[in-house]
Structures are given as C-alpha cells and as structure tokens.
Amino acid sequence: MKIRRVSKVYATLANWRKFQFRLFGEGIVVGACAGLIIVAFRYALEMAESLRSAVYRHFPAGEWLPVALWFLVLFLIAFVLHRIVAIEPMSAGSGIPQVKGTILGIMRMNWLKILLGKFIGGVLAIGAGLSLGREGPSVQLGSVIGQGLSRLSGRTRMEERYLITSGASAGLAAAFNAPLAGVIFSLEELHKNFSSAVLLPAIAAALTADVISQYFFGPSPVFQFAGLPILPARYYLVVILLGLIAGVVAVPFNRGIVIALNLYEKQPWVTGMGKAAIPLLAAGVIGFWLPDILGGGNELVNKLAAAPMSLSLLLLLLVAKFLFTLLSYGSGVPGGIFLPMLVIGALAGGICGDLFISYGLVEAAYRTNIIILSMAAYFSAVVKSPITGSILIMEMTGSFNHMLPLIIASISAYLVADLAKTAPIYEELLARSLRRQGKSPASSPAEKRLVIELPVGIGSKLEGKFIRDIEWPPDCLLVSIRRGDHDLVPKGDARMMVGDYLFVLTPTEQAETLRRLAE
Q: Same domain, yes or no, for 411 and 479?
C-alpha cells in the first residue's frame, strides 16, 4: 500500500503540467460544492437570526410564560450543541485550527461528520445569539468538502492537502463575498505556501464559490459604508497611531480567548451541556437589554457607519462585545471569531475616531475611515496576518481606494502584537488543542508519511547548498526539485536555489523541521 502511494506521487511529479490542470478543474468543482453549502449555511443563519429578533420583539410585557419557554428552548439548544461536540470533537470552536492541523498532517478530520455537525451546530449557536462568526465554520465546511471529494476520488495525500486548502479558500470567499481574501488567507495562514500548485486551485475555488454566493446574495459588500471619502495622506501619522492603539487592544483579546477556554475546563461544576448552557442563558438575558452584541455583529458595524453613537454607548458595546465573545467562544461550541473580532475593532475605531475628532487630529468627515482602518488593524494584530487583514476589509467594505492606509494600519498593529510576543491566535489555538491531547506538532503524526512541498527561501539553510551538504532529518527522501517549469534530478551534487520547490517524502513528525530548513 505504501509503495503504491509513493508511486502515485512519482507519477504525479512526472506529469506535473497535467497535474496542475487537473488541480485547477478540481478547484472549480470544490468551489462549486463549497459555494452551495456556504450559501445554504448563510441562508439558514439569516433565518435563525431573523427568528431570534422576532422572538424578542414580540415578547408581551409582563408575561413570564413566553420568556420561560424561550429559556427552555435555549436549554434544548445547549443539549444539542453538547451532543454535536461529543459525537465529533473536531466540529468544536472555529474550525480553522483543525484545518491547519489537518494540512500539517497532525490532525484527522472525519469530513462527513464535521460537515453535518458544523452546519447544524453553527446555525444553532450563532442563531441563538452567541457572539460567534460564520467565517470559521465556513472555512472548515469548505475544507471538508475538498477533503471529501479527495477521499471519494482516491487522491493522494499531497493532492488532498491542495484540495483542503482550496475548499478553505472557497469557504471564506463565499462567507464574506471576498474571493481575494479567501485565497490570501488560505495560503498565508493555512498552507504557508504560494506555489502555483496550490495557488491555481485556490483561486479557481474562491472565484467559483464567490460567483455562486453573489448569485444568491448579490454583489454588495458585507459592511455598508456609502459615500466613503478618500483619506488624505496628511492623516497617515494618525493612521499609524490608530494601528498602534489597535495592536494594544488586540493583546488582551488573544490572551483572553485562551484564558476563557482554560477557565471553562477548570471549573468542576461546568460539565456536559453546562458549557454551552452558560453563554446561551447569558445571551437570553442580553437579548432584552443589549441585543446589538448578539450573534456575529455585522449589523452593528452597519449601524456605526450609518450614524454616530455616544462615546459612553460605544464603550459599553465594546466591553460587552469583548466579554461576551470570550464567554461564547470559551464554551467550545461551533462558531468562529473572525466577525466578532472585526466588530470589536470597529467599536474601538469608533471610539478612537470620536477622540481624534474632538482633539482636532482628523476632520469629522473621515470618522468612517477610522472605523474601517481599525477593523483591519485589529484583525491583523489578533491573527498576525496583515496582508489578509488589509485585503479582507477592502473587500468587505468595498473601500478599494484605501489600500495604502489599510496596509499602514495593519502593519503598525502587527508590530505592536509582535513586540508583545503574542502568538497568532489560530496557531495558539492549534497548539493548545494538541497539548490537551498530550501531543505537539513535532510528535503527533496523523499520517505516518506524506509528501510536502517546500519553497527554498532567501537566507534559508538550503539556499545555495548542495544536497549532499545538508543534514537532512532521518527517514526523509528528496523526491524531486522543481525550478520554474523544469524538474531536476535530486542528486547529491545538485545545488538548491531560492525559488526552488522541493518535494520531500517524510514522516509527519519531521515536516516542521524541514519547513524550518527551507525558511
């Protein structure tokens, strides 16, 4: 079996051009299937959130029975969510760390169970009012579509990784009408590689999924910022200041997510469905007093764009959204943190914008610009992906004339987060999940051997070296070297150059060591 798997990889590398065309076609298929699933997911979420809003609007004053029935429904939802996570633990939380772990080869996903569990669990959790986003579930739903098509068609493990990445790209593209951000996020954050082998199917999947999403939901961006003026260059120092502030505000969010997860686990009285019941009951109460912080929160961002709010209300919403997001995500139910963190960034931007205007740092006409830049900066500091943050907000707001200030704000926030030594949130969540299982990325192989693709980076330990001079990890086999459109035989006297792609058959536990050699 092992010999057959390796020979299939050799056949793939020997017919590379044909393999790339096949991947492109498979990317379209993955994008079409993922797009339809995410459209159904978004539609179900909209129906669930509309139903929740209608329930709160029509509660009769002074009547306790309807309220009691509503809280009973929340208890039932908590029970269903608990059972979903118990049956398939990989459907818990955002899903993005699980996708990262699967691409790295240190986790396994049961694609069909996750497809069902994530879809139903995400609709119930977010629809019931938990401060969670649809993007994490969408990314995981797209990725298991890619994995499922790979398994059903008998593809190699190497090809499956490309299809999982393509599905993740399609999931984010369809969730937010953001195809470019879907591609960049899946490559920058998940696959950690921009080779043509993964780039082509990822683009094909994202564009196909976005076309399907736009057919059903229209081409409008998720956030509505009408008549947005172009920010003059004289305000770019203020943009840097905003990025620094967003970076500072992002540090407690990164650490708070992990603390919330740990607190839930350390409470002996919080067992079974109790984890899901705590935030759901809190959501039931919050719905009467502060409904704007329920759910993902994209409508709250649109309210910020439509009309200014008082500083005290902005502070209240910021603190409440922040704490409720930690409470919701810490419970471990299906749901992401993309959208809540963007809302927190927008609220922080609204506060900064009001303060900047009051101190004469910017004109009032540019208040919405500050909100948009703050969202990108906050995302970049939390996820530590400034390119994705800039492009994502550009597509989600339709502010295509603000690329330069978006990048400035994102880089400034990223530097603050880096100086504070906060780990990227999804890498931290992946490491935490592995630690809970008594594993680490270096010692937890889900697949005994796999073929990985390594780009030789500038200044890496491989640059300019002969193959024979490298101390390769044990049990690794350099299968092929691709330089442009040419394949090189990996002999000992072959010199590796920047931009080469190495295909290495390796035990999973050595994959991270190989990646460090090439970086």
A: no
Q: Which helix (H) or strand (E) holds 243?
A: helix 236-266
295, 131 Cβ separation under 8 angstroms: yes
Contact 347, 312 (CB under 8 A): no
- Residue 115 contacts residue 139 (beta carbons within 8 Å): no
Written as six digits, the tokens of 253 are 């969010």
Residues 6+ apart with CB under 8 A from 331: 130, 264, 275, 276, 278, 279
For the chain, 519 residues long, the average pLDDT of each consecutive 10-residue run is: 52 69 93 97 94 86 83 95 93 91 85 95 95 93 96 86 94 93 88 79 96 92 82 94 95 93 84 88 93 89 85 95 96 92 95 94 93 94 90 86 92 94 89 76 53 81 86 81 77 84 79 78
Query: Which tokens is 447 given?
Result: 């697949």
Q: Which of 165, 185, 217 is the last residue before a domain boundary?
A: 217
477 shares a domain with 426:
no
Torsion (CA) 51, 55, 56, 61 in degrees, nearest 10:
170
As to burial, measured by CB atoms within 10 angstroms (0-12 exposed, 13-18 middle, 19+ buried), residue 423 is middle
Please report which residue ranges of 15-129 form alpha helices under DSSP H: 16-57, 65-87, 96-104, 111-127
Single-letter amino acid code for the residue at 409? A
Collapsed DSSP state (helix, strand, coil) of residue 361: coil
Q: How far apart are CA 30 and CA 142, in angstroms?
A: 8
Kindly state whether residues 462 and 420 are assigned to the same domain.
no
**Structure confidence at residue 2 (pLDDT):** 47
* Contact between residue 174 and residue 209 where contact means Cβ atoms under 8 Å apart: yes
Same domain (yes/no): 33, 56: yes
Q: State the DSSP H helix or E strand holding residue 399, giving kind and residue range, or none if neither.
A: none
CA distance 282 to 263: 17
- The residues pairing with 449 across neighbouring beta strands, listed in sequence order, are 507
Residues 9 and 40 both lie in one domain: yes
In Å, the largest CA–CA distance within the chain is 84
Instruction: Say if 224 falls within a structural domain.
Output: no
pLDDT at res. 16: 67
Quote the distance between the C-alpha of residue 330 and its chain's center: 17
How high is the pLDDT of residue 467? 86
- The single-letter DSSP state of residue 505 is E
How many structural domains is the chain composed of?
A: 3
Structural domain of residue 381, as residue ranges?
233-434
* Listed residues 217, 243, 277: the one ending a domain: 217
Q: Is residue 59 within 8 Å of residue 66, measured between CB atoms?
A: yes
Q: What are phi and psi of 479, to 5 degrees?
A: -85, -40
- The DSSP result for 478-497, as a single string, is EEEEEETTEEE---TTPBP-
Q: Is residue 442 part of a domain?
A: no
Other residues' Cβ atoms within 10 Å of the Cβ of residue 106 = 25
Burial 70-96 (b: 16+ CB within 10 A, else e): beeebeebbebbbebbeebbbbbbbbb
**Burial classification of residue 464, based on how many CB atoms lie within 10 Å of its CB (0-12 exposed, 13-18 middle, 19 or more buried):** exposed
CB atoms within 10 A of CB 502: 22
